[in-house]
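Review box. Two proteins, two foldings.
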Amino acid sequence: MKSIHLTPVSRLKNAQFWLLAIGAGLIAIHITLTWKSNIPSLLGSSLLFWIAVSSLIWEKRHSLNLESGVLPSFLGLSIIAIILFKSASLTSFGGFLFLSPFILALGLALLASGFRGLKQYKGELLALFFLGAPKLLPSFLIKHITLLTAKLAAFILWYTGFEITRSGVNIYLPTGSIEVASGCSGVQIIFQQLGLAIIFILMFPLNRQQKILAPIVAATLGFIVNGVRVAVMGVIVAKGNPEAFEYWHHGDGSLIFSMIAVIFFGLFCWFILNINETKNKQHKSSIR
């Protein structure tokens, strides 16, 4: 009988295959649960972030150090097992679906590369962290952002010709009023935009100023677009249209503003990349 010995290359390929299979399975489970949760904004964000992060990992797969010790492998498997057990016995979704992508990615990274190898995935982990970060913010910070949103919405309404008065997070119009609750603070869309900014920084070569500017522009766009959304809902309430209010507040209309913020940030990214491309062409021309 001949003995068969696996070469290091064979072991590496097997490790990549199993890690890919585990990662794909975990992503599929999270997307399925998100789809069943009936939270359209989270479903869209999750698909976008998972695709972007998976693409980034795939591009650098040949340079990854896939060596993990016993302790980090055990810890990674334990994290994944706990999340899977929680997913199987889920009774209410809460913040679990928002936080689980980062936790799952952390467990998979520990399983793949150990403690020392986590730095290889710091950008991707940070992007997924922003997906669930709003659920970790302290209440006083959310209240502060909510008040700023109410002030912005009130200013937009006043600037566009409406007679309004504001008291805290309450905005009063002649024929109706709205209260800007914490759910309308815009925290979710702001952090979604920040995650997109991190992905943009990871995917394209940018200079230092552009890397600083991208998150600032992303967060600002998210805050402003959400302020416009709250102002629009104020106008709808003033006109006495509860069906339209429900659509823009809880229905598919809420997704439109999230898409608008993403589109505006996409235009900003396109503008930055065009500037860099022009500079590169000019530099090549000057060398010739």
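Next protein.
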Amino acid sequence: MPHQPPAWFAWRPGSHLAPADAPRAPLLAADSWLVEDGRVRFLAGHRARFQAACRAAGAGPGLDVAGFLDQVAGRLPRTGAWFPRVELLGAGRPVLGLRLRPAPARRAQVRLMPWYGPDPRTCPRRKGPDLDALAALRARARQEGADDYLLTAPGGLAVEATTATLLWWDGGRLCLPAPHLPVLPGITAAWITARATRLGVPLTPRPARPADLSGHEVWLVNALHGIRPVTAWPHTPYRAGPAPRAALWQQAWQDAARPLPAPQAAARP
């Protein structure tokens, strides 16, 4: 078997990353992105989102989040497919770490079901604290013949999936959930909306219920899969619309990958 690198690296603020055992502590903030043969998409966006999440979680300047992220980029493998996760863990004294994970299987399409039960999220605009609860809900969706659940707000408005941002097309307009809804700021979604603006595609934030999406081209988008059109709505009367735009936009997402930054020398311990 090929040698597998250590799965978790602890950050020594102002110094370097070292292999370690991950502490058993609450996950306060996290971010992940896909790395394929040393190429990555929108790393600056993931970096900025994680830094904001750490600030929101109360991480002080002594943790040196920027220095940590510089070292993370140098630690990532330049061959193979990986889905690393940067983490802020802890309670009283939080710590930063890198969880190095092989990329899970990726799919080009998705079967989606609405979820009308209690919202499992406690921090919907910060990635990290709710990941375990969302994973459990996603596992339940798979038991019911879907790939993911579409979360809904009170009143039944569609919000997002457990792992992805919701986008859909209405004629020539690209639609997204209304801005007042509790949605995680999506890095892939931000790239899509910026590209749409450059191409002159009208963007329309609007409230929508799952039934309003029936017959439309609906996408779930995230850093692992890119753009996945919804091809089925199991156990619902809703119809998956054709997705003529998805392949072209997915190819543009594929083409957006850039080489990882060159490794930076660690500070002397």
